[in-house]
């Protein structure tokens, strides 16, 4: 019997290539391509008065210099749309004032780093030489930086957007204000989270090659969605979509920033390749990534909550302000997720949430792993802790009393989620998860440990945070599987891969569903030459969406193989099974009659010509066939292959709970994470090794977001820490070991019972660590991240208030 | 034209990379990372920050780990350089550190991995049997955004084991 692959910690097939230096990332391609560098605005808010390129024209190796006027001229000459604003990808009725940027600034720049001039040269050195010699004259405008300045609206980012407000959205279930006013206990909290960013180790990059003979364009881009880039590039360049292909090479991390598209460079580089007739490449450098990609997380929240003597929520009202930066190409996804997912595993009573999405003269904000959930989790979990403190109750107990119970699943929160569908939890066992977490971290014994540490002059504290995460959002993904005549199984799906081990995980599914050895399976992702219909890799959706899609596709291939083999083996389809890539009659074992899938593939394709040994078997004189029937039976098609799609009614909801133990230094206020415990429920685990790796990485980003990472904007809109020297991402010395326990409540929504796992690890980090610091210090924490210096000042303020 | 901005003359430099000698004519400002990646097309060495902080571009120069994004290639005339490609086993398969990364799931996107492989190779030359704390310290100068480092620390320990095992 073949070992089942799903559920096993199968080593990744990607690794041997990547660890030996044989990966192919964007900048590993096109060594002879022209290279691009940009003149980017050094000012946060200004009018571009004049661009003088005179001094740059004599730079050796210069090929071309383009400004916005060139894009306009191209529109007039060739009918392209490169001068028009980039698309607003996710419109929403409440997004009344959506503004997007131009590929090159159209007379005004709205953040430091916005591209104004594109230089093409023989290599990047020459391109940067030219960039340095281009002079831009600016007329300065007042920069608007931070939520408070945007809200005050004394100045506007965009002249035609009153109040700097792009959108205002309200969702409500019941009368929250009345419920809060009538509640025996009430609290109000102001809670803030600062900006961080996805910050993949590889920045963005684009390589484009125009084949003038074939009139076709091939674009390689470090993206999370190749199919949509293809459509966008074709539309911008006025090319038939049929003449454009987009290939995702190895991608050095995404974490959300690469789902946005088309980036200005994804339009400009292919356009330059088309006009110059030569391959053109742009590789983003780290500073460019800081100032011209995307950030996330920055939000201010005001909470009003009413609850009973037991700590049960009666009404919850949250108003928050989301700083989305200079433009809003990705729409309202992040604040919609905060506003819905902050409810976590709890029943809020009556709930009202209102947010405003505000323009500022800073880098745009688009989803970064967690995508609004870390903020929502911070809001809800800080509220839970505040209620526990107010009533003098155990923090775990307050949570438990507010949990949705397993027998209440599926549970409708009565809101509309980011996919436009109901916020309806499909499964989960929150009391079960909490029990596991309490045991894993030793919650009930911690008070004694804290006291003992106190006696030794040490300060330790514990905190927990719970979340629910809608994963696997639609609309769909698809798969294509073909069995070659040598028995190789070729699988493709349209979404892309940034290190999640999709080739391994999808092959595990196909191996089980089709009954073939894992080693015979080859998986391709993110290549529009292979699969043209897809959405992309975001929202922890690959296992759910493409996993389910290749599972149903493999089932279709299996059915076809059995139909063909039933003729060859003269047995009924129901009596056949596929084991180790061989179709055989059930119960006959290895010695019975069988036909391997390669041979079935040969038979599936009736031939006239014997182009190789295997093909001989399928030629017209080779085998007896019913002369009265067509060689390809009615309803069949040649080839042992199939393509199927999976489209669920709505998202599936994963959940988890984290507990953290921290120690704070009584003198220096240094904060050290001593233990980090995770209980995680993502339904059926396809590859537990990969799932745990995802959790580890998420936890590290959660620790970074809680203690180290923030975008330091000066009031004039300069990003002061736009380098790895100053933006502090955690090294191994800052990340704790991670203790993990799993609970499995399979999703009823998909054939595999899986839920997404990619983002989970990061979500509760700031909330749990804030709670642990609060517990260690006895000081209320309302803003994250927190540095030792900030904690030190909180101590001083607390002492002053106490004295 | 008299005011052409030229990249200037080139200098002959001899680099022995992974045991193979290369004579290159390079502009003085050509970074070692670019010379390796684009002149020699050894693209295993990756550039993550261009300012020596992330460590993805780490190569061994005469056995010592160095950041190739901070070195001018012309300053290394006569040097022996080992890149991630040079950390393979004799038959071209995975070397012990690479094998350990595979076994321990110590990589996800793989972009930072080459810098870890070279750094750990040099570390284990100095300390063939590190404790877990020493292993963690050894990789604390390289950034990884995917793994949370847990499995990388385990891979250092596993690589030390593999290096001690007699080769078949």
Automatic annotation (TrEMBL), chain A:
Keyword Oxidoreductase: yes
InterPro entries according to UniProt: Ald_Oxase/Xan_DH_a/b, Ald_Oxase/Xan_DH_a/b_sf, Ald_Oxase/xanthine_DH-like, AldOxase/xan_DH_MoCoBD1, AldOxase/xan_DH_MoCoBD2, AldOxase/xan_DH_Mopterin-bd_sf
Species for this entry: Nocardioides iriomotensis
Keywords: Molybdenum, Oxidoreductase
NCBIfam families in alphabetical order: CODH_aero_grp5
Pfam family of the protein (one): MoCoBD_2
GO MF annotation, one: oxidoreductase activity
The keyword Signal appears for this protein: no
Residue numbers spanned by region Disordered: 621-644
PANTHER family recorded: ALDEHYDE OXIDASE 1-RELATED, XANTHINE DEHYDROGENASE
Lineage: Bacteria, Bacillati, Actinomycetota, Actinomycetes, Propionibacteriales
Start and end residues of each Aldehyde oxidase/xanthine dehydrogenase a/b hammerhead domain: 20-142
Protein name: Xanthine dehydrogenase family protein molybdopterin-binding subunit
UniProtKB/TrEMBL annotation, chain B:
Pathway membership: Alkaloid degradation; nicotine degradation
InterPro entries per record: 2Fe-2S-bd, 2Fe-2S-bd_dom_sf, 2Fe-2S_ferredoxin-like_sf, 2Fe-2S_ferredoxin-type, 2Fe2S_fd_BS, Beta-grasp_dom_sf, Diverse_Oxidoreductases
Keyword Oxidoreductase in record: yes
Transmembrane portions of the chain: none
Keywords: 2Fe-2S, Iron, Iron-sulfur, Metal-binding, Oxidoreductase
SUPFAM superfamilies with a match to the protein in the record: 2Fe-2S ferredoxin-like (SSF54292), CO dehydrogenase ISP C-domain like (SSF47741)
Top-rank taxon, per record: Bacteria
A molecular-function term among this protein's GO annotations: oxidoreductase activity
This protein's name: (2Fe-2S)-binding protein
């Amino acid at each position: 019997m073949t070992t089942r692959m799903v559920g096993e910690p199968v080593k990744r097939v990607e690794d041997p290539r990547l660890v030996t230096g044989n990966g192919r990332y964007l900048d590993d391609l096109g060594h002879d391509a022209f290279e691009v560098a940009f003149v980017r605005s050094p000012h946060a808010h200004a009018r571009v008065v004049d661009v003088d390129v005179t001094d740059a024209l004599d730079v050796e190796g210069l090929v071309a210099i383009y400004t916005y006027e060139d894009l306009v001229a191209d529109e007039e000459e060739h009918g392209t749309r490169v001068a028009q604003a980039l698309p607003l990808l996710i419109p929403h009725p409440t997004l009344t004032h959506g503004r997007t940027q131009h590929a090159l600034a159209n007379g005004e720049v709205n953040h430091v780093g916005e591209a104004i001039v594109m230089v093409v040269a023989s290599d990047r050195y020459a391109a940067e030489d030219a960039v340095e010699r281009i002079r831009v004259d600016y007329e300065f405008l007042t920069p608007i930086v931070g939520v408070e300045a945007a809200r005050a609206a004394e100045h506007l980012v965009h002249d035609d957007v009153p109040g700097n407000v792009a959108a205002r959205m309200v969702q409500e279930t019941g009368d929250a204000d009345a419920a809060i006013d009538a509640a025996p206990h009430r609290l109000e909290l102001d809670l803030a989270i600062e900006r961080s960013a996805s910050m993949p180790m590889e920045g963005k990059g684009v390589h484009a090659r125009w084949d003038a003979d074939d009139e076709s364009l091939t674009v390689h881009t470090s993206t999370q969605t190749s199919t949509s880039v293809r459509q966008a590039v074709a539309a911008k360049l006025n090319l038939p979509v049929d003449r454009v292909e987009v290939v995702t090479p190895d991608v050095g991390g995404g974490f959300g920033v690469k789902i946005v598209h088309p980036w200005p460079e994804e339009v400009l580089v292919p356009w330059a390749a088309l006009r110059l007739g030569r391959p053109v490449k742009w590789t983003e450098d780290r500073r460019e990534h800081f100032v011209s990609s995307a950030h996330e997380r920055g939000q201010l929240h005001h909470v009003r909550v009413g609850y009973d003597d037991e700590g049960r929520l009666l009404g919850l009202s949250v108003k928050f302000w989301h700083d989305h930066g200079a433009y809003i190409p990705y729409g309202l996804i992040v604040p919609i997720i905060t506003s819905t997912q902050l409810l976590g595993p709890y029943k809020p009573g009556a709930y009202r949430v209102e947010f405003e999405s505000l323009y500022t003269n800073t880098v745009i904000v688009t989803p970064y792993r967690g995508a609004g959930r870390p903020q929502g989790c911070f809001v809800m979990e800080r509220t839970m802790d505040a209620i526990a403190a107010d009533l003098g109750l155990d923090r775990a107990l307050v949570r438990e009393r507010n949990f949705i119970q397993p027998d209440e699943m599926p549970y409708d929160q009565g809101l509309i989620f980011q996919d436009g569908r109901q916020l309806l939890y499909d499964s989960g066992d929150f009391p079960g998860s909490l029990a596991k977490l309490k045991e894993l971290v030793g919650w009930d014994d911690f008070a004694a440990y804290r006291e003992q540490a106190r006696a030794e002059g040490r300060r330790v504290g514990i905190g927990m945070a719970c979340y629910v995460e809608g994963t696997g959002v639609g609309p769909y993904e698809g798969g294509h599987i073909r069995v070659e005549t040598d028995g190789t199984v070729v699988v493709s799906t349209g979404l892309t891969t940034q290190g999640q081990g999709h080739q391994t995980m999808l092959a595990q599914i196909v191996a089980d569903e089709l009954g073939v050895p894992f080693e015979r399976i080859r998986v391709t992702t993110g290549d529009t030459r292979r699969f043209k219909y897809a959405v992309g890799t975001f929202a922890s959706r690959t296992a759910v969406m493409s996993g389910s899609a290749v599972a149903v596709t493999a089932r279709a291939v299996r059915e076809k193989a059995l139909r063909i083999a039933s003729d060859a083996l003269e047995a009924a389809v129901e009596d056949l099974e596929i084991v180790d890539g061989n179709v055989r009659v059930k119960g006959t074992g290895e010695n019975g009659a069988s036909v391997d899938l390669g041979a079935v593939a040969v038979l599936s394709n009736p031939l006239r010509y014997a182009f190789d040994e295997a093909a001989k078997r399928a030629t017209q004189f080779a085998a007896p066939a019913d002369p009265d029937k067509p060689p390809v039976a009615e309803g069949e098609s040649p080839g042992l292959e199939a393509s199927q799609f999976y489209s669920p009614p709505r998202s599936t909801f994963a959940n988890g709970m984290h507990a953290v133990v921290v120690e704070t230094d009584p003198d220096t206020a240094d904060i050290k994470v001593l233990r980090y415990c995770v209980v995680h429920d993502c339904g059926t685990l396809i590859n537990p090794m990969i799932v745990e790796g995802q959790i580890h990485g998420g936890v590290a980003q959660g620790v970074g977001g809680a203690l180290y990472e923030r975008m330091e904007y000066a009031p004039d809109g300069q990003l002061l820490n736009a380098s790895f020297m100053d933006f502090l991402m955690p090294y191994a010395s800052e990340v704790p070991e991670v203790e993990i326990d799993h609970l499995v409540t399979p999703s009823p929504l998909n054939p595999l019972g899986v839920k997404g796992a990619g983002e989970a690890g990061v979500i509760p980090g700031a909330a749990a660590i804030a709670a642990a610091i609060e517990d260690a210090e006895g000081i209320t924490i309302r803003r994250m991240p927190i540095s030792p210096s900030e904690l030190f000042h909180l101590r001083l303020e607390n002492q002053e208030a106490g004295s | 034209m008299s005011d052409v901005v030229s990249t200037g003359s080139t200098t002959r430099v001899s680099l022995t990379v992974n045991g193979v000698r290369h004579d290159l004519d390079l502009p003085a400002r050509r970074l070692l990372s670019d010379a390796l990646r684009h002149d020699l097309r050894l693209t295993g060495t990756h550039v993550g920050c261009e300012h020596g902080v992330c460590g993805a571009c780490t190569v061994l120069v005469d056995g010592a780990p160095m950041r190739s994004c901070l070195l001018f290639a012309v300053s290394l005339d006569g040097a022996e350089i080992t890149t991630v490609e040079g950390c393979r086993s004799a038959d071209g398969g995975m070397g012990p550190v690479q094998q350990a990364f595979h076994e321990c799931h110590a990589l996800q996107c793989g972009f930072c991995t080459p810098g870890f492989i070279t750094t750990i190779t040099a570390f284990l030359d100095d300390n063939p049997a590190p404790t877990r704390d020493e292993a963690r310290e050894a990789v604390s100068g390289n950034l990884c955004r995917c793994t949370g480092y847990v499995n990388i620390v385990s891979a250092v320990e596993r690589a030390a084991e593999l290096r001690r095992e007699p080769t078949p």
